[in-house]
Every structure is written in structure tokens, then in C-alpha cells.
TrEMBL record:
Its cofactor is FAD. The keyword Kinase does not apply. Its EC number is 1.-.-.-. Pfam families: FMO-like (PF00743). The chain crosses the membrane at residues 271-295. PROSITE patterns: PROKAR_LIPOPROTEIN. The keyword Membrane applies. It comes from Populus euphratica. Keywords: FAD, Flavoprotein, Membrane, Monooxygenase, NADP, Oxidoreductase, Transmembrane, Transmembrane helix. It comes from the Eukaryota. This is Flavin-containing monooxygenase. GO terms for molecular function: flavin adenine dinucleotide binding; N,N-dimethylaniline monooxygenase activity; NADP binding. InterPro entries: FAD/NAD-bd_sf, Flavin_mOase, Flavin_mOase-like, FMO-like.
Amino acid sequence: MEKKIAIIGAGISGLLACKHILEKGFSPIVFEARSGIGGVWSQTIESTKLQIPKKMYQFSDFAWPPSVTETFPDDEQVMEYIKAYAVHFNILPRIRFNCKVTCIDYVVPGNEDFPSWDLWGGIGWPFSPTGRWNVTVQDARDPAAPVEVYQLDFVILCIGKYSDLPNIPDFPLNSGPEVFNGKVLHSMDYAAMANDCAAELVTNKRVTIIGFQKSAVDIAAEVAERNGVDHPCTLIFRTVHWIVPDYFIALTFKSLNRFTEFMVHKPDQGFFIWLLVILLSPLLWIFSKLVEAYLKRKQPLKKYNMVPEHGFLKQISSCMFTVLPANFYDKVEEGSLVLKKSESFKFCKNGLVIDSEETPIATDIVIFATGYKSDEKLKNIFQTSYFQKCITESLAPFYRECIHPHIPQLAILGYADSPAFLYTTEMRSKWLAHFLAGKFKLPTIGEMEADVKKWEKCMKYYANESYKRSCISVLLQIYCNDQICKDMGFNPRRKKWLLAELFAPYCPDDYKYLCWQT
């Protein structure tokens, strides 16, 4: 009997999952709440472009078209590339648009106690002989329409981390947006606007941005460019982060090779590897300090009190990687962009009051670029509290960054943070498709739990209090890919000669033929 597989979401991770599963002979259903594909790339601000070189952000078996000559393509070019991929591999007919999955629930016969299973799904293989997922789907265009319930053998969650559930701070009574006469929105809402509507909203307005990650600095630079010194944009933040120019990103990716990973501790490393890391790790510390010195020299960080308190290596280990918008500090110098560091702030009638100043910041529009509640979003899709607790009560990462040891017949793609998101997600899509095809069996639940605990301990060594379970492969991309290749029974060494294996960067092209191997 044909196995029924559902993929929830048609962003990049959903498209990758669908493509690779189709190649294994399955016929998945893709539920997408919106009317089109692309996920976060379908709703971006006007100035958005790739933060990494396109060579590291491409499908391994579908190259960028020759017409895209830029190293960092813009959002429209990225969307065209994604659409071309979906058309080329005939993915679109598998997608049911405007179908919002409201909840999923795992169903087993009443005499089975699945939380006590020693093996994932009871047998360690992808499809249980008894368990099924009930997926409830609603018409996104008509909430009053009757819901449909699908019973499926396997579910792949590709719902993304950076959409739908914005993280907006709580405020004491009479200190929040309710007392403010202006407009308050989240960067998600701003990005969802058409470019002309977004421009009309902020033009000749006093705009304040809250945050200092990618969305915050990009929107601040865009608004400052549009309004100039007559209506300066204010950027309020609690913590300063290192932000690097795009050419530096290109240089950094060229150094991501096996030799640099010899400087990083790994789970289950033997004495020889441990000793090698001890001997080479000072080079990693030196690299971090050189980067910090370079950025302080090239950017007026001291002048504007913008020197971060943490090191560059710690920030990278926490997956906080932001590219400096063009002419960012030129806008600060000319006065079209005002930087304000503050531990806290509150709303007043005409603007915002920060803790270091008595005079309110006069503001017409406040945009929160404060991230998303990704774990809560993931938790909310499960109907039962057992699975919700699986998501919220542990900080351990997922096995191979896509399998929760206690959630059977389900994978989570697109959750792993990485500067090279497409590259990371495609590798796990290939691994998952191979698993679904019955090519290998998962370890016991206890062994998977022990594995992810080792990863948690290892990554906390570098990230400390900034550790996130979604960010464990950023320093060990090749090592993680090696594990995936070994699981699938393939040679993890993808280069043709020793020096290249050690010192050449690894990129998606190196794994181009992996999915074609049997």
C-alpha cells in the first residue's frame, strides 16, 4: 500500500523535501497556507538581498541562471530562482495552496503506549504499522468553511522559524502601544506590504526601529535612505552585535574547510582529535580577534559606542550573523540614522522614552524588528500537550537537526539555523528522503537522546548563555554533512585529492550527485 506523506509549508524547505521525496517514488501532499511558494522570500523589504554568496545558496542540482551575475542577488532574483526550481522538478502540482494546517495529532490503537517505546515509531523505521497522524486543514480564504482531516503515515513540518508568530515585548500597564498616538507594527507586517505601500507608510515620517538583527538594520537603513536628515530614523537596541560588510562574508565562506573544523571540539571526539583541537584552537581565537580589530578599524564603532561586549566567535556560534547595509555609518554620520542603546523603553503619547534620557523620542511609527517565537509556533501545531512538552521542555537539539526522538513518524525541516540555510536544509532533505525509502534505520530513542545531549554540551562550550538548539552545525557544517553521508552509506570525502579535501571550501556542488546514488 502506498504510504501517505504530508509536507506542511512550501517555502524552501518544503520544496526541497518534496523534490527529494518524489525522487524516491512517493507522492507527497504539500499544504501551503499562502497563495504562492517561497516562504519568507515571498514577503521581503525592498532592499533585501542574499547575505551570503550565491554559490553557497543554491540547489546542488539546479544552478543559478547565467543572467544572475551578482554575488549577492536581490529578493526578486532569489524568488525567480526558487520558482524556476519548483517548475523544473514539477513540484507545483503537488502543492495545495491556501490550505492552512491548524493542528496535527498522533493516533495509535488504545492498547499501545507509544511514549514508552524504545525505538522511534516503535520499530525504528519511518512508517509504523499502527500509528498515524491526523492533519486538520482549513481553507485560508474562508475560515468559516468546514475543515478537512487527512490521515497520514508521515508528516514533514516545514513551517519556518521567521514568520507568523512575531515576538513583541510585554509592557507594564499604561507603558505599551495602547498609550501611543502613532502606528505600531512588526517587521513581519512591514515586509508583507507591497514596496510602494511600505514606502508611502514611512515617507516623511519619524520612524523608530526596535532591535539590532538583520531585519532591524536593513529596515533602518532603508528608511534613513528614503527620508534623509529631515526625518531621521531612530534605531533602539539593547545589545550591540558585530555586523560585517558583504565582501567579508564572501571571504569567510572561502575559509570554511576541513582544516578550520579541526579547530572546533566535536561530540564523541577521540583523544587524537581532542589534542588536535587543543593545538589548533588558538588559531580560531586569533581569527576572531583579528576580525574584531579589522571591524573596529574599518567602522566607527568606538565613535558611536557600538563596540560589542562579546567576541566575534561567540556571536557566530550563536548564529547571529548580520551583514552591514550599504553606507550604514555614512547615514549615521549625516544624521539620517540615529543610534540609541537602551536597556529598556516605554511608550508615551507622542513617542518613546528610553531609560537613559528624560526627553521622549518623538515618533510617528514604531516597527518592532524583535524576531519570532519559533518554538511556540512549532509547539502550537501539535494538538496534544505531550508533543507540545516535547518541544518546550528541552533545549537539546533535534537528531540530525530534523528528528525529535520522542515524536514518531515526523520530521522538522528548516529549523536548523545556518548562514547557508538552503545548503543545510538540502542535506537534511536528502537524508530524510533516504530514510523514508528504507535505506537505513534510526538508532534507539535512548541513543538519539544521548547524541543530542552531547551536541548540546559541545555547542554550549562556544555559545555559552547565547546557545540555541537550532544552531549546532554553524561551526561544523562539513562534520555534520559527514554524519549524514555515513548514515546514507556514502563516502563523506567529496573532493578528488588530499589538499583540496583539507583546504578547499565545501559547497552544495560537492553533494550534487549524492541523491542519485543508490
